[in-house]
Amino acid sequence: MPIDPATDVTDVFEEHRPVLHGVAYRMLGRVADAEDVVQDAWLRWSSADRSEVREPRAYLVRITTRLAIDRLRQVQSRRESYVGPWLPEPLATDFGGTAPDTAERAVFTESVTLAVLVVMESLSPLERAVFVLREAFGYPYAEIAETLDRSEAAVRQLAGRARRHVDEGRPRFQVDPDRQRDLTERFIAAAAGDDLDGLLKLLAADARLVGDSGGKSKAPLRIIESADKIARFMLGVAKNAAPGTEFTLLELNGGIALLGRCDGTPDTVLQLDVEDGRIRTVYIVRNPDKLASLAAS
After folding, report:
1. Which residues, listed in sequence order, are joined to residue 261 by a DSSP beta bridge?
2. Is the Cβ–Cβ distance between 284 and 212 less than 8 Å?
3. Can you tell me the distance from the alpha carbon of 72 to that of 62, in angstroms, rounded to the nearest whole number?
4. What is the pTM of this model?
């Protein structure tokens, strides 16, 4: 039935804001871009004729998804001139009511990991939208088709292609949080202790280190490959760490990460992808624009 006119338009929107932000962030990989899209969705919602809106959540998700597709097409062209590798903006993962129950949390969380978001960069905007709505939020194909103004058959094809790309690129197994925490602590301890052998034992032989600074701070401008090169790089980083830098372990993007603060300001995020008991990828984010949202973490 249509929305009760007595229902506050703001209350309805705020009820669904976490879901809308979740869709937008997974589409765009940046908190600021996601917030802009959600704000645009609010403007559309507040000025729309809501008398015939029977399902506010579906209506708002449709608006948000379409706005996110448009924004993604814009930012993809800007990323072509980005200085160095591009990584998604780290997100503190307090999902609130957006993950319906414990059984679904693993799937919901996986769709926001750095590894999956990086792979999703290879998808077209439509493929990404279908993947997010289907895999993270469980929307039926018919509803996604209506949202994207495509046939259900076309949506199923997009979903199949997207899932194949993501399955090929993401880690094969989920890592227990305690195991990830342990490896992160050992990795940092080995670097701080100038323990080259200790780092090499933790890293897979073909490990990669991806650093994102956007040219605004020190980080590798190319991906570093091989355990030996990564280990030696990390030893150099540890030796040249700014005095007074403090480190905290916290959950970002559904996994354990290390947040470094310099004089209280977020300076570095380090997160590890682990496979078969070894570190497969080291992600380092140092672009200050992507760390601002963690100031309160």
Report:
1. 246, 266
2. yes
3. 15
4. 0.88
Residue 152 identity (one-letter amino acid): E
Count of residues making up the chain: 297
Residue type at 157 in one-letter notation: Q
Give the phi and the psi of residue 273 in degrees, each rounded to 5: -100, 125
- What is the tens place of the pLDDT at every residue in 99-144? 444 444 555 677 888 989 999 999 999 999 999 999 989 999 999 9
Structure tokens at 188: 């940092």
Q: Residue 3: which pLDDT band, with cuts at 50, 70 and 90?
A: low
CA distances in angstroms from 288 to 82, 219, 266, 292, listed in the order given? 14, 12, 8, 6
Cβ proximity of 184 and 256 under 8 Å = yes
Q: Please classify residue 157 by burial: count the beta carbons closer than 10 Å to its beta carbon, then call 0-12 exposed, 13-18 middle and 19+ buried.
A: middle
SS3 state at 122: coil
